[in-house]
Amino acid sequence: MPDSKISALTAASSLLSTDEFVIASGGASKKVTMATLGGTVVKVGTLAARPAASLADRLYLATDTYGGTLYRDTGSAWVTVSNGRVATYMRTSFYYGPFASTAATTSILSRSFFYAAPFFVSQDVTIDRIACKTSAGGAGATLRMGIYTDVNGVPTDLVLDSGSVDNTTPAIKEVTVSQALSAGIYWIGAVTQGSVDSTLYVHSSPLGAVSPLVPLSSNDVYAALVNGYYFGGAITAALPATFTTPGTGQVTNVPPKVIVRIA
After folding, report:
1. Could you report the per-residue pLDDT of 129-165, keeping only the tens digit for each?
2. Contact (CB, 8 A) for 192 and 200
3. Domain hosting residue 229, numbered range
4. pLDDT interval class at 10 (50, 70, 90)
């Protein structure tokens, strides 16, 4: 079979290393597998074009994430094999964003606005807790925490909504969850809700800034430090399915310190 026809066949089909087909040439034919020809087919395309997981050991290369991300189909889910990032190992423990901010800084966050900071996941994990710490609440005060995906450096689609959390009294607010996260960048944050303002512990510049992921608002590196994005103004219940695409007017240096625990 000419190479062009083999290419057309593999492009149109989801072949595994054990799948068989016949090559005919000069009146003779031979049954071969993909393993005979050199291994499993690697499909190539965008992450959005990746088919649903269904065929074990199929490979897919997403060209538009982290310089190329290779996924393996388990038959029921896609798992990350490798990508263009430098990998680190995440143990069972608590984690939050990439800041050197250890000071006990607090801020009254405007109610109904979701404030988010970047969160880097270096391997496929499952989180079983999400938490933040408040220093002031009051009768009728609530909050909710959440996680959004990242697309091209900005928060995009909702991954996790913690549900409404009572904030009548200040304390560590921890919610039990079960959420799988594939390796990549996410945006993690919180929104204060209810009838009174709440004060949360926050990441505060200049202790930590995440440029170039979040662009600076000017060329004054000290005055322009930013740590995340915010959006909303009317988030009084469940978190929106999509994070409003932020612009330079939606950067913040005080996203709340939201922490997750890896199971």
Report:
1. 999 999 988 888 999 999 999 988 889 999 999 999 9
2. yes
3. 94-262
4. very low
CA 115 to chain centre: 16
User: pTM surpassing 0.90?
Assistant: no
Contacts 24+ apart (CB under 8 A), 12-16: 14/41, 14/43, 14/51, 14/55, 14/58, 15/40, 15/41, 16/40, 16/41, 16/55, 16/56, 16/57, 16/58
Q: State whether the Cα torsion 259-115-159-140 is positive or negative.
A: positive
Within the chain, strands assigned E span 20-25, 28-33, 42-45, 59-62, 69-73, 78-83, 94-95, 106-109, 113-121, 125-136, 141-151, 154-161, 165-166, 172-181, 184-194, 198-201, 228-232, 251-252, 259-262
Q: Which of 65, 127, 77 is nearest to 263 (CA)?
A: 127
CB atoms within 10 A of CB 164: 14
Report if residue 89 sits inside a domain.
no
- 34, part of any domain: yes
Which token pair is 66? 């982290």
**Contact between residue 96 and residue 171 where contact means Cβ atoms under 8 Å apart:** no
Q: Are residues 58 and 168 in the same domain?
A: no
**Any idea what the CATH number is for the domain that residue 99 is in?**
2.60.120
Q: Do residues 23 and 30 touch, judged by C-beta distance below 8 A?
A: yes
Domain end point (choices 35, 51, 83): 83
Work out how many domains the chain is built from and give that number.
Answer: 2
117 closest CA partner among 86, 145, 79 = 145
Q: How far is CA 81 from the centre of its chain?
A: 16
